[in-house]
């Protein structure tokens, strides 16, 4: 009778004993990095926290040594010694279907060059002025704050004042309520309206963001009304729609506008995302752009030149805004007294989505859906 041999059962090692037996990783120190890089500990500290003060060659040598040793600074100790966390807060509501990611990227990269880390809060528009969000940023020890837009609740600004935190407002400018880096929305609207007026358009439609809870949308619409009145044009009430910013929203709003059969020759959209949806809806309905209807917009996003047809739009200096806002905060934290720059320049980029108005104002109608093959 055969016997099945079994391997002898070995006792499992005690987990606690195993942990004790493993060597404890040695944490590299500032002195270790300095020795490997061949510099002083002060130079290492400056290279990692204030890289702009160090030559590129020395900074690279220090960074390579820190990477090789796996060195990570003790953030809490450094913050205690410096009385700073080297962290900048940013309050930028609603990221989707907007130009704000480009703005934040420029803000972050410019801050990073000076050794700062960006802590971003991106709430819904309805919570953009919630003091609880600002309190949360302050509790995390931010040294300064970048805010989107010009209009903010007094309670929110009072929190910044109480904690003596530098701040800067991005995107819009106007009035004297704190430092701001931005452009003139009225000028942006005037560029579009003047272009269409010069092309013979007299009856306009507009699809924009919701003005009740969006300061940028409100300022853009107000600027549009001013420019339309100045040029003696007509903004058709039943061809003026508010919606959320997005491709789908622009598509659906344009479908609703076409269903109303309003006599317009040009459609202005609040941003390029809405305009992209509008072009798609017009194409599906068989409305020829720009022969039957011109379409113009704002912001000049990267995709705008590649639409069909390429989109006429106002080029907004989005990256420059982020960079200037970062430099403003850095200067303030370094003891300076930076002032708001003048409104940044805007440019109308004329492409193939706008043309001379038709000889007569005709009602833009939706054609029957195309037959499916």
Please explain how this structure is put together.
This protein has 373 residues and is of the alpha/beta class. The protein has 3 domains: 29-73, 434 Repressor (Amino-terminal Domain), CATH 1.10.260; 87-183 and 319-344, Response regulator (Rossmann fold, 3-Layer(aba) Sandwich); 185-316, Rossmann fold (3-Layer(aba) Sandwich). It is built from 13 helices and 11 strands. It has helices spanning 15-21, 30-37, 41-49, 56-69, 75-82, 100-113, 131-139, 154-162, 185-198, 215-231, 247-260, 272-285, 318-333; strands spanning 87-91, 117-121, 144-148, 167-172, 180-183, 203-209, 234-243, 266-269, 294-299, 312-315, 347-349. It has a 6-stranded mixed sheet, with helices on both faces. Helix 10 links the parallel strand 6 (203-209) and strand 7. It starts with 14 loop residues before the first helix and ends in a 24-residue tail after the last strand. 38% of the residues are buried.
What topology does this entry show?
Layout: H1 15-21, H2 30-37, H3 41-49, H4 56-69, H5 75-82, E1 87-91, H6 100-113, E2 117-121, H7 131-139, E3 144-148, H8 154-162, E4 167-172, E5 180-183, H9 185-198, E6 203-209, H10 215-231, E7 234-243, H11 247-260, E8 266-269, H12 272-285, E9 294-299, E10 312-315, H13 318-333, E11 347-349
Parallel strand pairs: 1-2, 1-3, 3-4, 4-5, 6-7, 6-8, 8-9, 9-10
Antiparallel strand pairs: 10-11
Helix pairs in contact: 2-3, 2-4, 3-4, 6-13, 7-8, 9-10, 11-12
């Amino acid at each position: 009778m055969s016997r099945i041999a079994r391997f002898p059962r070995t006792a499992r090692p005690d987990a606690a004993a195993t942990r004790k037996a493993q060597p404890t990783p040695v944490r590299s120190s500032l002195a270790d990095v300095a020795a490997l890089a061949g510099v002083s500990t002060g130079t290492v500290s400056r290279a990692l926290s204030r890289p702009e003060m160090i030559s590129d060659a020395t900074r690279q040598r220090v960074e390579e040594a820190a990477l090789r040793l796996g060195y990570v600074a003790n953030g809490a100790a450094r913050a205690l010694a410096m009385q700073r966390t080297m962290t900048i807060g940013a309050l930028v509501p609603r990221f989707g279907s907007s130009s704000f990611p480009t703005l934040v990227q420029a803000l972050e990269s410019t801050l990073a060059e000076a050794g700062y880390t960006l802590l971003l809060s991106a709430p819904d528009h309805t919570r953009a002025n919630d003091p609880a969000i600002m309190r949360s940023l302050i509790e995390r020890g931010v040294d300064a704050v970048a805010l989107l837009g010009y209009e903010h609740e007094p309670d929110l600004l009072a929190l910044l004042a109480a904690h003596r935190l530098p701040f800067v407002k991005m995107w819009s400018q106007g009035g004297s309520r704190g430092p701001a880096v931005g452009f003139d929305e009225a000028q942006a609207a005037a560029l579009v309206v003047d272009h269409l007026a010069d092309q013979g358009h007299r009856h306009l439609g507009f699809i924009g963001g919701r003005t009740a809870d969006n300061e940028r949308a409100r300022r853009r619409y107000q600027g549009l009304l001013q420019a339309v009145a100045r040029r003696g044009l007509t903004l058709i009430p039943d061809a003026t729609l508010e919606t959320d910013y997005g491709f789908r929203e622009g598509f659906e709003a344009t479908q609703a506008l076409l269903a109303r059969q309003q006599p317009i020759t040009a459609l202005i959209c609040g941003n390029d995302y809405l305009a992209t949806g509008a072009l798609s809806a017009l194409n599906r309905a068989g409305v020829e752009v720009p022969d039957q209807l011109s379409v113009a917009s704002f912001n000049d996003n990267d995709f705008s030149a590649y639409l069909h047809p390429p989109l006429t739009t106002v080029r907004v200096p989005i990256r420059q805004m982020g960079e200037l806002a970062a430099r403003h905060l850095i200067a303030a934290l370094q003891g300076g007294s930076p002032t708001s720059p003048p409104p940044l320049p805007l440019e109308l980029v004329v492409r193939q989505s706008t043309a001379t108005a038709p000889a007569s104002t005709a009602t833009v109608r939706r054609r029957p859906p195309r037959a499916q093959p």
